[in-house]
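Following up on my earlier thread - several people asked me to post the actual chain instead of describing it. Fair enough. Here it is, all 303 residues.
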Amino acid sequence: MSALSHKVDFAIIFSVKHANPNGDPLNGNRPRTDYDGFGEITDVCLKRKIRDRLQTEGHAIFVQSDEKKTDGLPSLKARADSDTVGLGKDAFNPKKNSKDQTAALACAKWLDVRAFGQVFAFGKEADAAGVSIAIRGPVTIQSAFSVEPVSITSTQITKSVNGEGDGSKKGSDTMGMKHRVDSAVYVAYGAMTPQLAYKTGFSDGDADSIKAILPKLFEGDASSARPEGSMAVKKVIWWQHNSKAGQYSSANVHGLLVNLIDSWKKKATEGDATVLSQLENLKSENASLLELKDLKPDIIDGF
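Reply from S.P.:
Thanks for posting it. Predicted structure:
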C-alpha cells in the first residue's frame, strides 16, 4: 500500500462532566491545569487512548497497556524479540540487520510505530552496545486544553475495609481524596505529514483507520475516575488537503477553529448560547465556518 498521499489536519472536540480526564501524579492526581486554570490532557494520554481503540479494532499495536495486552508478552523488549510477532529474534540484532531494515520491519508490523514513531533503545549487551533506533512518525497530536478555565471539585473519601492486620485499627491509608472536573469542553489538534509517512509506510488506509476511531475515542475507557459516559467526543473535524504539501499551514487551519471558539465564548458572555451548544449545532452543511478556499472540512459527530 502506498504512503499517505494528502496532508491531513484534524481537531477533536470533547466534553468532560464529573470526571478526572488526566490526573497529575505529582499533584495528588488532581486534573491537570495550566497556570491560567485551563484544563489540560497530555498528548501522551490521547495517544494511549488512540492505541487502545486501534487495538480493539484488531490492529497490531507495539505499545500496549498492561491492562489491555492481547499477546501475553510482559514487556516491549519481549514483544520486539518474540517470534510470535513475525519479525523473528534477529530482526532487532544490529549484527544481522541495519537500522533502516529494522525500522522498516517494525513499521510494517505495528500501526502505532508507523503512525507515532518509536525509539528502540538497546542495552549494553555485546550484540547491541550503544545502539538505538529512532523512528519519527508522521502523526502528531497536541495536548488538549479546555476552552474555558475548569472548576475542580475535591472530595474526601474513606476506606471501610482494612487491607491487613486484625481489623482492630484503621490503616494509615484509610483517608483519601478524589478529584473531578465538574464540566468542561476540551479541544485537541493534530496533523498527518506525508513527507514523514513516506519513511514509515503510513498509508491512506492507516489514516482512515485513525479517522474511524476518533469519534469513539473514549469508548471502553471507563474507570472510577472516568465513569462510563462522563467523557464524550462531540465533533471530529477533518481537513484533507489536495496535495502532500497542503494548501495551507497547520497553524492557519487549526486557527479557524480557535477563532470560531473565541467568537462563541464572546457571545456566551453576552447571554447567547454556550460554546458546547454551538458545537452541537455545528454540522457538515455549515462547514463554511471552518473552510478556507478549496479546503473544506469533514465534520463528524461523536459516537
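The mean pLDDT is 87. That should answer part of your original question.
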